[in-house]
Amino acid sequence: MITVQNISYKVAQKNILNKLSFVLRPGEVTVVLGQNGAGKSTLLKILSGEQKPTEGKVLLGQDDLHRLSFQQLAHKRAVLSQQYATNLPFVCEEIVMMGRYPHFSNKPAAIDKEIVHQCMEEMQVSPFAGRSYQTLSGGEQQRVQMARVLAQLKEHNLHSHKKVLLLDEPTASMDCLYQQLCLSKAKELARKGYTVSVILHDLNLAAQFADTILLLKQGRLVTMGSVREVLQPAFIAQAYDMEVNVLEYEEYDFPILVPAAHKRKTVLIRSVNQ
Ligand SMILES: Nc1ncnc2c1ncn2[C@@H]1O[C@H](COP(=O)(O)OP(=O)(O)OP(=O)(O)O)[C@@H](O)[C@H]1O
């Protein structure tokens, strides 16, 4: 569990995050939404320990997250950042093995190799094992990075409820099939007890995969709650300055959001014809 206590983050007098308090629960996928520049990546960097809040505190379990060593953090949380280097001079298998670095000192053991193999299979990147990472497409690179974070989290002596997975726009370059694969994997880990937080831009993927949604605007919390509590036209208008319609179909247990501007003017046409 991650407990965020009244955190703010300021750069050059600018408040990028403003007095945020919330809890990320094990067993749940918490999706962070908000327009460009809302502060989502900054928040994730603070939750990962990469950046320190200028005010407030983040607890990982009972521990102050920003007092944990890099090694301690590496065993408890894995992060897929928005900007990862695309020019790394490694083959894909080596990139995924990087996820195992916290688990061995000199040479990877047989179990590390087995885990790398398994995670590459899970993200369907095994055919790229010996390929130079630089030669992959954006979506393929993202899948390799996802395999790396999955490999990092595999550990037998730490309970899953103590582990955290943080993903910053993991599906941005993926096609629709791999978006589903990637977020299903995140959901599966949540169901095993992991605390999972994912930044997304696609409201419909959020509707499909989130247990909880945290909606930000200009570094402030607009609202946080279940999918149907948050994905309401009024909150979306407040956060994105955009009108949406929320559709419900009996066959689906999540809502579908469409831009209101593209609604056919059925009512108007009828009234014109009458
Ligand atoms: N070091 C910095 N100096 C100045 N401004 C910064 C710095 N870091 C972040 N910002 C600003 O803080 C705001 C939040 O940035 P952040 O990357 O967290 O946004 P985001 O919600 O992830 O956006 P996006 O959806 O575009 O990825 C942006 O306006 C950004 O320009």
From TrEMBL:
UniProt cross-references to SMART domains, sorted A to Z: AAA
A single MF term (Gene Ontology): ATP binding
Residue runs in coiled coils: none
Pfam families per UniProt: ABC_tran (PF00005)
Cross-referenced InterPro entries: AAA+_ATPase, ABC_transporter-like_ATP-bd, ABC_transporter-like_CS, P-loop_NTPase
Entries under Gene3D superfamilies matching the protein: P-loop containing nucleotide triphosphate hydrolases
Domain ABC transporter: 2-243
Source superkingdom: Bacteria
Keyword tags: ATP-binding, Nucleotide-binding, Translocase, Transport
PANTHER family: HEMIN IMPORT ATP-BINDING PROTEIN HMUV
Primary role: Part of the ABC transporter complex HmuTUV involved in hemin import. Responsible for energy coupling to the transport system.
Name of the molecule in the record: Heme ABC transporter ATP-binding protein
